[in-house]
Amino acid sequence: MKQKILIIGGLTLLSPLLYSFCGFYVSKADGTLKNKTSQVILVRDGNRNVITMYNDFKGDTKDFAMVVPVPVVLQKENIKVVDPSIFQKLNDYSAPRLVEYWDENPCNRHMYDEVATVADKSLNRMMAPGKAESREKESSVRVEAKYLVGEYDILILSAKESTGLKTWLTENGYKIPPNAEEVLDPYIRSNLKFFVVKVNEKEKQKLNNNFLRPIQIAFSSPKFMLPIRLGMANADGDQDLIVYAFTRKGRIECTNYRNVDIASNKNIPLFVQKNFGAFYANLFTQQWKNEGKNISLLEYAWNVTPVNQLKCDPCVGNPPAEQDLVQSGVWWLYGKDWNDYSDIDNDEPDNGDRSVYFTRLHVRYNRKSFPQDLMFQVTPNTENFQARYIITHPASGDFNCAAGKKYLQDLKERRKKELQELTRLTGTDLSNWQEDAMAKNDETKIETVQYETLIPVYKETFPDRDTGPVGILFLSGLVLGAAGFLRWKGII
Amino acid sequence: MLPARLLKDARYFQIIFQSIFLTYGIFVLHWKSETWLYATYFATSLIVQFACEWIGGNKNIPLLERYRKGIPSVLISSFGLSLLLKTHEPVAAILAATVSILSKYILRINGKHIFNPSALGIVAAVLLTGNAWISPGQWGSDAVIVFTVLSLGFTVTTKVQKIDVSLAFLGSFGGLLFTRQIIYLGWPMDHFIQSVSTGSLLLFAFFMITDPKTTPNHRVARILWSIGIGCAAFYLATFRFINGAPIYVLVAAQPLIPLLDKLFKARNFEWTPSTKMTIQEERFLQTIYSKSVM
Fold it and tell me: A285 and A153, same structural domain?
């Protein structure tokens, strides 16, 4: 009955979000700076790490400063700037997707159309030009290294205690987030260095562009983690972090928070297409809340090895090409190897394997639910996963044959299920969607099966369902009962 | 009231509690339910156990009789694998189950088997195949209440469980972690709580390291041994960033048990009730001793 046609609507991340890395901003101005969504690329194999951090700093670049804790003093060769388009490509490729199917008219088995829709994926990253300055070191803080990389002045600081670091930053004219000192202390005692980034205005002007390019760092460390705690210093409320990870072996997963797959492969009503971004944002929030917030959500996982033919099914954006992977820091591909990052501990032999496995994780964190930095591990799990939602177009024409009548009955039943799924996934009342349902002219002309007609009917009948606790009580009762019975009968 | 007989053998309680944990994982934590994987663990273990009894069991007891007696232990080790070991490779699953059961029959000293069956199965599958992994994050930290209640419930209801082992391990591991995270590094309290409130840790402390068959007999030796495991696991987890460190350390520490049993002679077991045991209780303890728990 269904004719499958692969058409996809990609999704621009979530609603009103700013993009930036999870370091904290030390602001010279008094204006409130927020960093709400970070995007980061992690490449990990053995103890080798390449981390690419993307900023979408909005404001005067002279106010921009980023502090990231790093495990080692990085050499200049191990710090690069890369093209921001790589983040756009990875996001487009791995974003949650909407798939369309068309019903065939059972009375008229050949009519269907192919229509392609691609959702708007523009992410504007506008940067106002500004002025930055670099300062000399002072007091108890040691400047381990000082580099100019691309448009950035980079300092690597080490400190003995947080007050020293705080004093250094304050004396150099930077405003410190109120909680930063408390957060800095544990990092200093863990012997971490601080990677401080500012914009070099002269270099910035030479570039003649109006955005800040992502910074890529490479180092060897057994620690596979992202320091999100520092980013919480000046963050009010929840922050989103998208992690794009590349490994040789398989998926990465979080080791100190629970890993949950985002709800996927769900049939949803046709009118959601109009507002797919809002739908997904609601779905994400609903699942995040239901699972207790302190979780890491999997949005995509796929083998993207250059020779692998099927890198997505269906594809929302172009799969990353080999050069995109290399640009992301996948050093084991052709034309690049770990030696490109010099001065790095190089004692691990490279096995020459050119597999690349991609994982996209989405974490929404806040201080209360995430007391620790994110720790990860590489697993041998190579199962594919995508966030995929399905809409189905109804058949058109006459339904005067017997099969046609049956079809309409089925269609009504199916749409009821779709509406039910919609309320369950998004946690929103059906009446919230009534407007969307009405604004989108229903493709079927049969009034009794139109969403507009169905919504008021089913609005009251879908209760909130949370079967988890009931399920466990029921099952444990069952198990206990069964065990007791077997024992009583002397069987075990 | 449950029949009094049911209260006698700790293994039945262990099976019940483990099945609750698995149910909790699948239904509340929404683990991807890997029915084939659990089925593989259980089927392989049961088959290997049968083969072992057939070939090498005590011939004075009828085959089916001695097979039936071993079933609870097989279920316990299969649950242990289901709860901790993840894989997509049937070969890795079969290897883990086979190693865990075979080790009970082959790797023995003084009538005791050396290794905790599921711990050895897990380590073998992870290290030998490269296709299996331990997922420390699978429980999250909200499950801690469920775990604490059930673990304590388990200890209280069975009474025979070697709580000293759990406490010594948790005390040393948690104490060192506390010292490092709170006192030395200066993290806030919830940072530490997040570290110790993971289900995997409690599962290990109450259901794996406590196996009466693979712990030293003497209380002092047992406590020292557990503290040693706690310290080594702390070191590996904190400074070597090894996930699932306690399990590796446990497997590495188990060959020490025969030595410890020799050094600390004392009586064979001392987790005895204050009054004299009845014949039934004696028999029950023998059952426990002759069969491994997990």
Answer: yes
Interface subset of B 52-81, CB within 8 angstroms of A: 71-72
Asked whether B10 and B288 are in contact (CB, 8 A), the reply is yes
Considering the domain boundaries, does residue A483 fall inside one?
Answer: no
pLDDT tens, residue by residue, B35-76: 899 999 999 999 999 999 888 777 788 888 888 888 888 999
Pick from A92, A112, A93: which is nearest to A102 by CA? A112
User: How far, in Å, CA of A159 to CA of A139, rounded?
Assistant: 10
**A268-312 tens-digit pLDDT:** 988 888 788 888 989 999 999 988 889 999 999 999 988 877 777
| Average pLDDT of the segment spanning B254-263 | 89
Note whether A379 and A406 are same-domain residues. no
Q: Is residue A112 in a domain?
A: yes
- Of A45-49, A455-459, B43-47, least confident by mean pLDDT is A455-459
Q: How many CB pairs under 8 A join A and B?
A: 117
Q: Do A487 and B6 touch (CB under 8 A)?
A: yes
Range of the domain at A403: 398-458
In a domain, residue A467? The reply is: no
Contacts of A376 in chain B (CB under 8 A): none
Phi, psi of A267 (to 5 degrees): -85, 125
Structure tokens at A276: 């797919």
What's the Cα-to-Cα distance from A317 to each of A88, A96, A303, A311, B32, rounded to whole Å? 10, 11, 15, 11, 27
Residue B16's φ and ψ, nearest 5 degrees, are: -60, -45
Q: What is the CA radius of gyration of chain A?
A: 26
Give the β-pairing of A295-303 and A357-365: antiparallel
Greater model confidence, B135 or A442: B135
Q: How many domains does chain A have?
A: 2
In order of A146, A168, A338, the CA distances from A194 in angstroms are 12, 12, 23
In the structure encoding, which two tokens stand for residue A468, read together?
Answer: 């988890």
In a domain, A466, yes or no: no
- Select from B207, B202, B201 the least CA-distant residue to B77: B207
Work out the percent of chain B whose per-residue pLDDT is above 70: 81
Dist CA B283 CA B157 (whole Å): 19
Residue of A nearest to B31 (CA): A260
Yes or no: say if A22 and A38 are a contact pair by the CB < 8 Å rule.
yes
